[in-house]
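Researcher: Good morning. I'm working through a list of sequences from a screen, and I'd like to move beyond sequence-only analysis. For each chain I'm collecting a predicted structure so we can compare shapes side by side. This is the next one on the list. No need for commentary yet; just the structure.
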Amino acid sequence: MAKALFYPIGNSDIQVNSHLRFERFYEVTQKLAQLLKDEVKKCNGKLKRISQGQGIEFQFIKEEIEDLQGKANTITFPIFAPLMEHLKNRGIDSLYLIATSQQPSPQRQDTIWAAELIKIYAQQSYKISKVEIIKITNNPSDYNLMSKFFKDLFKQMFPEINTNLENYAFLTTGTPAMTTSIALNMVSLPVKHLYVSREDSKIYEVNVFSELNRERYIAIVTPLILNYEYGQAIKVIQQSPLRANFQLVNLLEVMKERVLFNFDKAMELIHLCQEELRKEFTDLSNLAQKEEKAILLEFLALIELNFKKGDYLILDVQVF
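Model: Good morning. Structure tokens for this chain:
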């Protein structure tokens, strides 16, 4: 399973020499991206002047670029690079760069070519195997358009997002309409939202979204567990942030197998639980050894359970 990062791109993402948020952002980044792509080809796919957490040295560029008032000597990624350093130990292997290329004609501040620069940097410096650019062709400042765009996007990507081992969404870059729409449309997905604090420039998780999503799934799972629907509870948990709680999932697996009278399987699973939990299942050993008294008591308990649930048809089958 993959570990993915969703990264919306803004005009503060590219710094060339000492220049940041230059006026003709689209044209300058287009020029640099094309030059950099050519250089990658010349170097057989591997740039020499590149380093993690810093950027790329452009000593091969001889011509001057008007907006930069000279040559482009270095390019740095003042937000993306620190984020990747923060996530370096998480093993991000899938990167989705969300960029703008407005139609019918690109605007001066569109970020599609900035995405190409970040893509090369991510592949070269962090060896990310999968880097995709998601293109926004509508006005990125329109809240209604962005809400629909990301709603459709995440609906299409739901199977992938839901099965990923980890998902991160960055909310500092991009337009306010983009980041707000990303956050709201991902609130029900297993995603951690990150941002850069203006106070200390450190990266933090936006806890409110994770907590809302967690509480939502707890509200769904709790009645299932109270009604002894362990199999259904496991299915819901496997689609939620709660799936990272191995002890919870394993405990429910034990209970599911016990209710099904698969005592040998339940015994295998209980050994994976913490000691405190194992103490609550001391009778499993007797059940696994098919002791008649233990089996009878378990059978009576199951009848009582089905009576509480109102499963009278199952109750009749078990009794007769």
